[in-house]
Amino acid sequence: MTRAYDKPRPYAPAPLVSVLIPAFNHERFVQRCLDSVLEDPWPSKELIVIDDGSSDHTGQRIAEWVAQHERQIPVRFLRRANKGVAATLNELASLARGEYLRLGASDDYFLPGGLDAQVRYLEAHPAKQAVVGDSIVVDEAGRRLHDSGMCGLHRADKRLYRTDEGIRRAVIGQWAVGGAVALVRRNAPGSLGGWTEGLRIDDWDFFLRLAARDALGFVDVRVCAYRVHAGNLSKTRHVATRVAHLSESRRVARLRAVLFDGADRTLLRAQVHYIGAKIAFLRRRPGALALHMAAYLTLAALARTGLTGTHALARQA
């Protein structure tokens, strides 16, 4: 069956896409990221980059790239003290002029054709505020590790992403989308209240709010290369840091549960206990681990019995 984003584009001016790059301590990778913006053949785009207080030579690498390529693409580059990724994304979005916002990461890079597939999807689905795609996975040297980040890295079932109900389930229980894979409408961050400043791992919170409104779509197209390296926040082995990240995720789950109804809310409550079990394991607290796992299994079973129930759209994030 021909999908909407596979159909030939009718003759019309291409909408402007603002490519947003929050950069922090990625001097080894940022040039590849910026080069990939030019490599994508999408004809109407601008580039906005903020160096979020890097302590290495990231800012210098970006400045050199801008000096070399500023005649090829409209570009705006800012350097300032560190504020965190969420605050940087909010600032980048406020500077954008495009109809669509392509969310980047200074250690990943885009794949040609991704913009075309994602813009086509959003043009064909006006009720959707954002769309995500798949990725390839590469290592620090750019060697390919997986052909699909969702399947190879996260062992996800991509069939879940074919329906709104499946997307809600996937975002709540098995968020398997990593890297610079999202295209959002310009008004989407404002309608959601922006990215929640103060969070270190902000993407789950942002996409939970989209999923609660059935405003998130998916295209089975590899739109970026997700780079796995020692600096990935999610890959740290430092126990205290892992506990802090998990505690933050548990707070997000508790906060956003009110946005969902029925089985979806139950599933997110189950995730609160699943995350709690991970924290208890890291802290070597077997009693708490057992209690959290019992609560998780009970709530997850209840959620499975009602996953085909009704879902009322959340009106406010």
Report on the architecture of this protein.
Helices cover 42% and strands 17% of the residues. The protein has helices at residues 30-39, 58-69, 85-95, 114-124, 149-153, 164-173, 188-192, 203-212, 239-256, 262-282, 286-305, and strands spanning 17-23, 45-52, 75-80, 100-103, 109-110, 130-138, 144-146, 182-185, 216-227. It has eleven helices and nine strands. With 317 residues, it is an alpha/beta fold. Helix 6 (164-173) packs parallel to helix 10 (262-282), helix 9 (239-256) runs antiparallel to helix 10 (262-282) and helix 10 (262-282) runs antiparallel to helix 11. The longest helix has 21 residues, at 262-282. Residues 308-317 have low confidence and may be disordered. It is globular, with a radius of gyration of 20 Å.
Write the layout of secondary structure elements.
Layout: E1 17-23, H1 30-39, E2 45-52, H2 58-69, E3 75-80, H3 85-95, E4 100-103, E5 109-110, H4 114-124, E6 130-138, E7 144-146, H5 149-153, H6 164-173, E8 182-185, H7 188-192, H8 203-212, E9 216-227, H9 239-256, H10 262-282, H11 286-305
Parallel strand pairs: 1-2, 1-4, 2-3, 6-9
Antiparallel strand pairs: 4-8, 5-9, 6-7, 6-8
